[in-house]
Give the backbone structure.
Amino acid sequence: MSNRNEKLASKIDIRFGDQVARIASTCCELTYELDRDDLLKVATALRNEADFGFEMLIDVCGLDYLHYGDTEWATNSASGTGFSRGVERKPVILDEADEFDSKRFAVVYHLLSIQNNIRLRLRVYTGTANPPIVKSVVDIWNGANWFEREVFDLFGIMFEGHPDLRRILTDYGFIGHPFRKDFPIMGNTEVSYDTEQGRVMYKPVSIEPRTLVPRVIRDDNRYSTDLRDANKDG
């Protein structure tokens, strides 16, 4: 981590205390996690106060941590029965759960301070509510408008206080949120234009499910150190 980032981290720790928690980074990026109830207060201070000056919001990203860290298909031997989540889980149209795991969905904010030439990331979990919801930062950074619409469209995360929260990438009649981990890879419906009827037609998807992981692990010299070494000796 650079000295400039460490100086900024020191200022953030002094200013916000327990409101924010620093997250370890593998790519030397300064990242903090905070409660969704503190988001607007912290974001406003990061924008307005001279020590920070984060006047630009670069991006807003949604995250779905469902099955995060789980191995979908783990084996050290050849097999013909391995399948990925893309074909194992039955199609989902709407998530009917009463509530989610408190750390399933998160929203990440990428901030830039032009005056101080430094970047910062914030992560906020949405909690257990269904639908997941956090407060909109449009009144702090106008550029959040379309970013939040994209997160809503693809992840189903709501933004309280957004002036025009509606889909931005998928069709108006689209059902579900395609970036959720439990959304079927092949989708739920197909859309086509019927020239005879002169209108758009919707029907159940007919695309074959895709397998994302190999069904067989090959024990040849591309994968086995012993075989590769034996081949060199021969």
Notes: Residues 192 and 201 are 5 Å apart (CA to CA). Residues 78-93 have pLDDT under 50 and may be disordered. The chain has one domain: 3-233.
